[in-house]
Records
---
Amino acid sequence: MKNEFSFQHRHILGLEQFSPDDIHHILATARSFKDISSRAIKKVPTLRGRTIINLFFEPSTRTRLSFEIAAKRMSGDTFNISASTSSATKGESLIDTARNIQAMSPDIIIVRHSSSGAPHLLSRHVQAAIINAGDGTHEHPSQGLLDLMTVMEHKGRVEGLTVAIIGDIAHSRVAHSNIIGFAKLGASVRVAGPMTFLPPQLTSMGATVCRSVAEAVEGADVVMALRIQKERQNDPLIPSLREYARFYGINRDVLRGAADDVLIMHPGPVNRGVEMSPDVADGQGSVILDQVANGVAVRMALLYLVLGGEKSGGEGAS
Amino acid sequence: MSECIVFSGGRIIDPVNGIDHVGELAIADGCIVADSPADARRIDLTGKWLIPGLIDMHVHLREPGEEYKETIATGTRAAAAGGFTAVACMPNTRPVNDEAAVTRLILENAAAEGSARVYPVGAISRGSRGEELAEYGEMKAAGIRAVSDDGLPVVDSQLMRRALEYAAGHGLLVISHSEEHALSRGGSMNEGALSTRMGLRGIPTAAESIMIYRELALAELTGQRIHIAHVSAASAIDLIRQAKARGVRVTAETAPHYFTLTEAAVDGYNTHAKMSPPLRSEADRKAVCQALVDGTFDAIATDHAPHSVLEKEVEFDQAANGIIGLESALPLALALVRKGLITPTRLVELMSAAPARILGVEGGSLTPGGPADLAIIDPDLEFLFSAEDLYSKSKNSPFLDWSMQGRAILTICNGRITHDILGLFG
């Protein structure tokens, strides 16, 4: 890591905005924060006096909890607003909501929204730093980063690895951030799933489209299954979960072609028996819970970096 | 203005009469006249073009019902500023223009406050709900010039067939908003690499071409004419070109944004670049240009669609479709002339003569005896396209802060000065 590296991003909207050096810097920062979570007193004063708002327009337990824990472990003051308690139901526009929150001078607004680009819109209307906690079917940058961190931890590198992402790529912001992140760090990214789950011109994002799960998994160092979103039934994408599990589910059988030390990943929560068999989710090579643990460290790093990375003593101007 | 005025020294372009030369043109008593008295007031137009007033066959004036976005007064004032002397306004107002009372209201307000001729377009179906025919005869008697359910496709093919047949009996043009909703629903931009990257549901060009194919088949079946609105896709253009070649009675328009911009304009979730059909790929844009050159397109229309910040400063997928276009259309079309793609004569054909012919309205030429509907253009005048200068009530344009070249400096509608940026008439 270069000593002189300076993180220049005021908002975290997606992995697309980062250079490989940016990503390495975030991951290095996350690693330096990770041990805080294993101490008896899990708290440092880094964000003392900082106000951090979790503005969630979509239901979330783990991402919101992860951000909240990250902020609290750094002594930030956190506040949660979910769509059901906000003015969204009263017809207040997103910008109005954001301006009202801005008037209370928060430092960071962490936003999850069902519309792609909602964090971008907010970033144009508020002074606070915006962190995208998932927007529509666009990106989920902190998830992409925690996945990169997890792979780096277990493999020591990302460059040169083969990563297979299986499932509903079209509607998965996790998949989008992962494709972008792994490709930026030099991994070879393969995707597979029913054609109805593959968005047009996916190769332009740096992924190779495989015709079958077996082909995608062949020799893979990392296999990641995506959650099937059962609520997407207004669009005829797949005939049944049963058929999906049989042809696109990750089980021991299909993993025989993968590398011996293949890592099994899933952004959670797992539909056991649909996109992944229980023995795979809980078995050898599964790092699903490591992903969750690293989520806190990555989010601590993001909170720290968007506020300028000011540690006591400062690091000097660049 | 009853006095006789002679415009001299300007380049007169009038494709209907095969004219493109420097010369004189006189108007008096609201008409173009062949002879002028010796003491007539003379206005020197050296370096300027004098053309028939532009006619926009596809605008949304939002009145009645959405006057916070635009009114007949502000929309036609914007039209005059853009060199237009007539506009055809789509029926998707509140209430929908699906009956004579609404048509009459629009025309009364236009007569009282308008700065351009207003030709109302009635609805194809009651409420534009796509279920039953609206009363074309009643609306025609009140003043509509065409029917369309613009903004929405007519989903039921049988209803569309009946509309074509029934409208023909009343001498009305049917204008199709061609969109296969099953394919476009939920989409907010062109389908492709960029929609994938931005995580937005795409609208494939097939959503447009499938419905255009149906419209062409119905026009062929019934032997009646149809006009296809706002064509954006190369595949759709091919269908229209082939249909014209085999004699189908079809005319078609595109809009300046489709020959100027591509889907790249939506990057950054720019809602000012969101419209239906969506901005397409560079290959589509080139095909649109080619179709303007080879005659597949008959007309350029703006699809002027004012929306306020309430509809546009929102999440991209929630934002309303449409952009304003009356004040940017001419400079954008002049850019095609400067690039050598089309001649000035072709521009006037596309933006004045053809729309007049398709709608069956006066204007579109400089024939003596016709109405004094004129636009005087300075093709070289450079200006910044700035929100503060717009007459339209809404500012939803992807061209804000563009440096543009060429605009109307004087617009005369029915002998009345409707726009005069140089103060030629004090």
---
Amino acid sequence: MNRVFEVSELNARIRDRLVTDGRLCDLWARGELSDVVNHRSGHRYFTLRDKESRISCVLFRNHGRSLRFDLKDGLNVLVFGDLEFYRPRGQVQILVRAVRLDSGIGSKHQELEMLKKKLAAEGLFDQDRKRRLPPYPRRIGVVTSPDGAALRDVLRVLGPYPAKIVLSPAQVQGDSASESIAAAIRDLRGKVDVTIVCRGGGSAEDLWPFNTEMVARAVSQSDSPVVTAVGHETDVTLVDFVADERAPTPSAAAELVRPDLSLIREDLIKTEGRMARALAASLERRQDRLVYLEKRLSGRMMKGLLREQRQRLDRASEHLVSAMWQRWKQLHADLVTKEGRLSSVSPLATLFRGYTMVRSEEGLIARAADARLGEEVEVVFQDGKLVCRVMAREVRG
Amino acid sequence: MDSMDDGLDLESAFEELEQIVQVLEEGNLSLEESLEVFEQGVSLVRVCNASLDRAEQRIECLTGGLPSDING
């Protein structure tokens, strides 16, 4: 039978093994802070962890005085100290002598917060900057990795919607990912009506390239509205704030961008119906009017019209005849008057009153002096004439 | 920009349709004009439907090649 240890004996043995391992002294360890407890005594207890493991840590008061920031859950730090085995509990822990913010993701978080404030102050997150997505995009840009599942999800959802899909490939992970994503967004300038920027799920570090100013600015400067879907629903990156729409997943982004085909078809049917009804209504209106006009154009009405015209003609011709008759009477009366006036001035009329007229061969003898002695003259009466000879002449004066 | 390549512009097709319907509903057109406009509308609807019917995914990659499992 193997040897049986008492617990304290066992723990003592473990401790002996650990403290004699030089590699476990003066060590640096990197991880995220959690379960931070600031004890009344001034000692601080916390857990350092990464994705897979955790280890307890203690920072005693005397070492904690030089700390220049508050320990908070979620901070990524580097701790310096020695590994210790705490015998009473059989627990391994780090006796921490110094804590530094991890130059990696930890300080990145602080930088991100500052960057957020800066961009917010510039108005890049303002709601009134958000553009409406086009209802029927003809060209849909997709910025993502050509090899990722996100692209396949997007393509599957877009399906047979009649639009051109323009893939602008980007490296979505790694050192130059930010540059690559920003460039891919810029490359779509003038080529698409809407842009999807997406990436499948990953660790916070994997998604980090979407937290950079470069990518945020590329999104804000995009000439087409941008829908972002980075990581899973719970992941929020800087680009989501700048984007015109944020979708929880790449598939959801595609849903936002693509109009519902069945709705389009419904719309078309409705439109067709409206046109047909409008045309039918306009035909009906015309028909009604035709019927109305037809009624008014009846035969009786035509006869009445004819009779009226005939009467007008009759009246006109009567008028014409009577006018002519009036005119004739007037002219006749004129003639009679003129005749009377003419005869009253005729010399012959004087003869009727008993006067006579004396004429020689040379004409009328109006004065005694005009007559020659012995000359033959005619004395004209109303009913004839006498031929006389001038026997004597007496001229007065 | 090549409009054939980019497919039917559904948005402007719908705008045009809406205008046609409005003009028809106002009813100020002559009968002949109404019929003409109506026919325009119906053929536009037909074009839209046909474009939806035969729509297939057309993918282009800005840098050239697409992964083999994606048909461009």
